[in-house]
Amino acid sequence: MAVGATNSSTNQHSNGQVNRRLWLVRHGLTDWNVQQRFCGHSDIPLSARGQEQSLWIAKQLLKESISVIYTSDLMRACETAEIIASQRASAVQIKESPEWREMDFGEWEGLTYAQIEERFKDQIGFFIDPEHNSPPNGESLIHLQQRVMDAFLVIVRSNEILLTGDVVIVSHGGPLRILLCSILGIPLQRQWQIKLDSGSLSAIDLLLGYGSSEPYAILSLLNVQIPIPVDHPAQDQFSSNELESTGRNKE
Fold first, then answer.
1. pLDDT tens across 134-150, in order?
2. Which entry of 18, 83, 88, 119 is 20 to 30 Å from 109 by CA?
3. In whole angstroms, what is the distance from residue 34 CA to residue 29 CA?
4. DSSP secondary structure letters along 185-201
């Protein structure tokens, strides 16, 4: 589906309710993503392919009314946000926040799943029951959910989204999946069934009421990406970068 085919829902109703679109961007590809390493809080830059993906996303959003871009403060997300902002005809503010960072994977950061299985064979409960197990010296899923939802509520209660226009969030696979589960009523244990590839664009439409604490959300777009030629040498690598079905989040 072309992004342009999704009608942006920014408008105000006579009863004081406002529709806003929240564009969800998973940052562009990094070398660690290609190597299937757990990035977490490690500050890894975009690869050349990641920059290309980010530019493609920027072009998809050119005709959209964007009031502000919120981004994780990690380099790969900031670079993606800056590329999106650089293509706009008028300046758009970028707001960095550690609240939108990926989960802290603790002692697993920089490792592949195979390395984790070898070195932490007695500490891999996270892959089976992530709600009750955490990476060694890492962050819990519940803590990740709390900080993501706190950041989300700051956005939906801000004057920017109520009065001026749609919002872009540039973040990581984990936080974006947790956000979608939380606002759409999907159990957290089902998060691995939401596919969000590096360099992808998704969107939710929010029905906001003045004074209302929780907006009504509709998923409008999911995991749209730059087309990759069939004969591209890295086609298989890009398409298999995530292994959500086994709970192996290497963001």
1. 999 999 999 999 999 99
2. 83
3. 7
4. T--GGGGGGS---TT-E
Q: Are 214 and 201 in contact (CB under 8 A)?
A: no
Q: Using alpha carbons, select from 40, 31, 222 the residue that is nearest to residue 126.
A: 40
Cβ–Cβ under 8 Å, residues 111 and 249 = no
| Of 79, 102, 242, 251, catalytic | 102
Residue 13 appears among annotated catalytic residues: no
107 is catalytic: no
Write the single-letter amino acid at 175. Answer: P
Q: What is the residue extent of each domain of the chain?
A: 23-150+171-246
Its sign, for the CA torsion 26, 30, 36, 37, is negative
Q: What is d(CA 64, CA 113) in angstroms, rounded to the nearest whole number?
A: 39
Answer CATH for 23-150+171-246 from 2.120.10.30, 3.30.930.10, 3.30.1950.10, 3.40.50.1240: 3.40.50.1240
Distance CA 34, CA 106 (A): 20
Average pLDDT over residues 6-17: 51
In tens, the pLDDT along 172-223 reads: 999 999 999 999 999 998 898 999 999 999 999 998 765 556 678 999 999 9
